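Recall that a protein's primary structure is simply its ordered list of amino acids. Everything else, from secondary elements to tertiary packing, is in principle encoded there. The following example makes that idea concrete.
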Amino acid sequence: MSVSTNFNPDTGNKINGKFVFLMMRVENEPSLIENLVGKWKYDSEYDKIDGKWTMYRKYSKEYDNLKEDGSFTSMFIDSLDGNWAIDSRKQLLVMDIGIGEFSMKFCLKGDTLILSSDRPFDYLTGEREDDNYRYELVRK
């Protein structure tokens, strides 16, 4: 990979020049995106009450299917299709369902995906909510 502009990570300043990056795949170690691709079943939802995560709801059929081509299908409140990407610097899973883009912090622990947000996106209205939510999903 080569670029003519780069950023100094310490200062954030733009640097002009020729930069070439040689990247090699780590043998037998899937990338973050490869680890996220697949069907994830919603297991439970938590709400932050008095500073502690408290289980709010258990799920039975809801899931997100993150596909290799950057698209996804979700069966959460309704059947939704859209696109997904990750912002690895901010540890965000970014999803776009056509009425708006939303992002949630993510943590991948084996076969458990934890999504959390302090301003979650309401799928039905496209508006932001003011609550803290955390969803736990398991690989299906």
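The chain has a mean pLDDT of 85. The chain is about 5% helix and 55% strand.
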